[in-house]
């Protein structure tokens, strides 16, 4: 797709023209970004059969995600986060207790603080590593609620880091999970099979994105995002 107002040199491309416009059996054309300062944009073109097949796959994957999220026995938890000492806003998660029971239960208890030892709680924790359109990472330097670190959940390792809002473990290697986590702010396939996906954000994505505006290239935040309260709202229902 040519995004240059005067046309694209070197090819017979006029402004707004798709290179693949003469492709036979084109059922769908999409430009993912465009603008005066974007000389070229990526896109995709599919035949009617390819588009229909892809839609079947997308529908099936979304049904699977919905069932995983709403599975009876999954915890519904929250964290209230303030940015630069401003009013706190809430982010809610559905945990995958049935798929990643260790990571999900550890996170749930860190939200509720039910160990009542002043250490195993997210309250007061900072988002200490924030990378633009990648992750919001937080946690506390304690062992897990089980005592020591806990192993990766095998089924959680199989889940893909394929979209924004997923909860993923943050650790120092295989089977070293403790009190740290990441909220994905974009798909991150390079994390697949290395970190456990154990839940997803279901409310408050705009606030997670606000936290992500504190990102720097090094990951050290340009401001302070702090969990001021956390807890459990109940359980998901099928």
Task: Give a description of the structure.
This protein has 238 residues and is of the alpha+beta class. The protein contains four helices and ten strands; from the N terminus they run ββαββαββαβββαβ. Strands 5-6-8-7-9-4-3-10 form an eight-stranded antiparallel sheet. About 5% of the residues have low confidence.
Class from helix and strand fractions: alpha+beta
Q: Return Rg in Å.
A: 21 Å
- What is the H/E string? EEHEEHEEHEEEHE
Helix content, binned percent: 10-25%
Strand content: 25-35%
Q: How many beta-strand runs?
A: 10
Major sheet description: 8 strands, antiparallel
Report how far apart the termini are.
44 Å
Q: Specify the overall morphology.
A: globular
Main sheet: which strands, in order across?
Answer: 5-6-8-7-9-4-3-10
Low-confidence stretches: 22-32
Supply the number of helical segments: 4
Mean pLDDT equals 88
Furnish the topology, listing elements before pairings.
Layout: E1 26-31, E2 43-47, H1 48-69, E3 75-83, E4 89-95, H2 101-112, E5 127-131, E6 135-139, H3 154-158, E7 166-169, E8 180-184, E9 197-203, H4 205-212, E10 225-235
Antiparallel strand pairs: 1-2, 3-4, 3-10, 4-9, 5-6, 6-8, 7-8, 7-9
Give a brief rundown of this model.
This protein is an alpha+beta fold and about 240 residues long. The protein is about 20% helix and about 25% strand.
Provide keyphrases for this structure.
alpha+beta; two-stranded antiparallel sheet; 238 residues; 4 helices; 10 strands
């Amino acid at each position: 797709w040519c995004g240059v107002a005067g046309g694209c040199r070197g090819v017979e491309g006029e402004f707004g023209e798709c290179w693949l416009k003469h492709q036979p059996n084109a059922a769908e054309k999409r430009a993912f970004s465009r603008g005066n300062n974007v000389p070229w944009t990526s896109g995709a073109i599919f035949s009617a059969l390819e588009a229909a097949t892809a839609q079947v796959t997308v529908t099936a994957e979304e049904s699977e995600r919905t069932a995983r999220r709403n599975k009876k026995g999954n915890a519904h938890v929250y964290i209230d986060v303030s940015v630069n000492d401003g009013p706190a806003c809430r982010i809610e998660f559905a945990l995958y207790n049935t798929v990643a029971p260790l990571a999900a239960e550890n996170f749930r208890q860190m939200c509720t603080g039910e160990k009542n030892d002043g250490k195993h709680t997210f309250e007061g924790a900072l988002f200490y590593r924030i990378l633009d359109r990648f992750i919001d990472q937080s946690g506390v330097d304690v062992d897990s609620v089980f005592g020591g670190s806990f192993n990766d959940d095998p089924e959680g390792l199989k889940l893909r880091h394929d979209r924004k809002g997923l909860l993923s473990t943050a650790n120092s290697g295989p089977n070293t999970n403790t009190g740290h986590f990441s909220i994905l702010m974009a798909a991150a396939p390079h994390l697949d099979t290395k970190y456990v996906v154990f839940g997803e954000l279901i409310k408050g994505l705009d606030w997670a994105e606000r936290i992500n505006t504190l990102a720097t290239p090094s990951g050290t935040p340009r401001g302070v995002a702090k969990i001021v309260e956390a807890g459990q709202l109940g359980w998901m229902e099928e």
